[in-house]
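Re: weekly structure request thread

Next one in the queue (194 aa):
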Amino acid sequence: MTATADQRLATRRGPSDSCAESVVRQWEPEHQLLGALMHLSAARVTPLLALVPDHAIHHPMTRWAYELIRALVDSGRDPDPVAVLAAGHRQPARAALDPVGAPTPSQHHRLALYLADAYTHTLSPSSATSYARDVLDQAYRRSFRAHGMAMVCLADAGADRDTLTDHFAAAAEELADLSRRSRQCGVRHHERPH
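Done, posted below.
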């Protein structure tokens, strides 16, 4: 039996590398934001959900959990980990291969592990607004890069001027929206009582 490239890489990297990646992941703003949201009431989460759109969340598991939190808060429930996990039995991720079918037991198990990790490794639930701003800043950079690459591809493919202009306008609108949302997080952060 021949080892795949991923297996060979995992063997070379060893268990300490995957452990280090896991630790680094814990400190990412998306992970911290999600964990912080599960510590807060629906009333405190609502303004943050209004500022951070689902598409600003990059990692698929984090985005699924974020979608679950949004659904709970929209129904007036606090997004504690037990409620989020229970919602995960019924609501698949919008980006799932089968977005209408119930999540598989394996997917639900991975969600449970992710939620436990995010909840227990949250540094400061009171910093949720700062985490939201950091998530939006990262989303802005990802969007800027993706739109830039798309514009280069369109230009290289010989797209007509109207197509190029339309794409540029859409990119500018999306970037302006993310920038405005990030600035609003900064305002909310400074308005917060200390």
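Residues 189-194 have pLDDT under 50 and may be disordered. Residues 161-191 form the longest helix (31 residues).
Next request, please.
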